Amino acid sequence: MRIGVGRKKIRMGDLLVAAGAITEEQLQEALVLQKEKGQKLGKTLLESGIISKELLIAVLTQQLGVDYIELKGCKFDDEVLSLIPEDVIMKYNVMPLGFDENNPNVLRVAMIDPMDIIAVDDISIVTNCQVEAVLAMEDDLMETIGKYYGNHQAMEAAEAYRKEREQDMLSQAEEDEYNADIENSPIVLLVKQILESGVRQRASDIHIEPLETSVRVRYRIDGVLKQVMSYDYSLLSGICARLKIMGGMDISEKRKPQDGRISIMVDRKEFDIRVSMLPTVYGEKTVMRLTSKDGLTKPKSGLGFSEDELKVFDGILSNPHGIILVTGPTGSGKSTTLYTSLSELNVEGVNIVTVEDPVEANIDGINQCQVNEKADMTFAAALRSILRQDPDIIMIGEIRDEETANIAVKAAITGHLVVSTLHTNSAASTVTRLIDMGIEPYTAGDALVGVIAQRLVRRLCTCKQPRYAEEHEKLLLGVGDEDDVVIYEPTGCPMCNETGFSGRIGVYEMMPVSRGLREVIARNAPANEIEKKALDEGMLTLKLSCSKHVLNGITSLSEMRKIVYEAGDEY
Prior knowledge:
571 residues; alpha/beta; 7-stranded mixed β-sheet; globular
């Protein structure tokens, strides 16, 4: 990223060093990382923790004499958005904000690089206005562009496709294949826009659903589905054909479910998309799960652990052998916790081998195997081979059957550290599930070193409103004796798309398996007795952990109720 003062270019790194915000050594370290990742220097500095967002903004605005804007809280006028052509918006990654109150000939424009002279000159020519550049953060700006321009682009592509269909008299199959594979065909552009817009709006899943007369597109953002687009039903076959080609599926097969995988680059980041197609009464429904390598390999600090939880987590990971299980329903962040654990354990002197279905993110220095049922590469078969690969740590994507559970337990007892997941409601019920799978209670007690049950709850936006908790709410929160307890409710503002929530945070129930717990497990005690012993030793249940987040104003009582019902606690 280059910054210009006046009409003279200077490098951003030099400017930050001159201001004393970073050292020359830190700059060189960031430049190496920047080259590896192929992204802007500012983003590299923030991601690597060399500089805080607040300090970066303060230095740039002061040194360059420009304003800073948080785009999430802005409302945009359609007339203003139409001032700059879309190709210019995409070329320079800018966003028109509006005219200066004191000078109607001055157009304020949000930019990642406020002193990009070429961009400022081009925008000035196309708008016939004087341009005042305003600093915006890259992620914030890209998300806003995707939100306001993505739908427009997609609708244009859809309209172009409809016109082409009217003109050409190809058969349906010929038309699908033609449109789905031509680089600049409207369907290719439409699908590209749906995927890119989903990434920029932080969607975890994209649903493309055939209805009776239309095709609905919904994004799952922060765990909640939201409709973003609706197209004419005639576009369905073209969209499905394009996704099948991208995902390596059979374009002619429309009666059977199919699975595929797509890799795309959005804003210089690589995203892995798992595609699932299911025939329904109105046609094929597509669901895509979006993951990025960066998203799954977070630092420990990014998981939302409290200081106490971080100590317990580190304690569980420090075991040289045994089984560590991460449990919870689909979409509760288990994969992120697993990959974070592996990244922590990934050092030169350790051989880590994984068996997954599918491999969700590639990590340097870890040997990852993918399950392939057709080639008889099951979890159990892969595990037997892995044990002959001299592993120190084994990661199993999921323990699904008795055979896999048995091999995992034997590996743990013979000196390996095994990390895996199970679908259970609580940490204590994970132990009984292992025993139900045919593992002897004394062996399960011996092998287990820690269980982490987890959920994700939505974080309240800054627009939240305080109120006093009622008596039954205080009971649920476990603070019945206190007089006044303040909790917060979601309100809704432009920054959070009127939802009242922005982002999610993990809620954890961590159960290190102590000597006392081993004895309880070995005598085949029920889940409630195992939980009672763990609570006596200081474990916090999911309900108690979430209660802390509610009392600290991080999440709402409505989000906590979901956890209480899921985990099977009494209301």
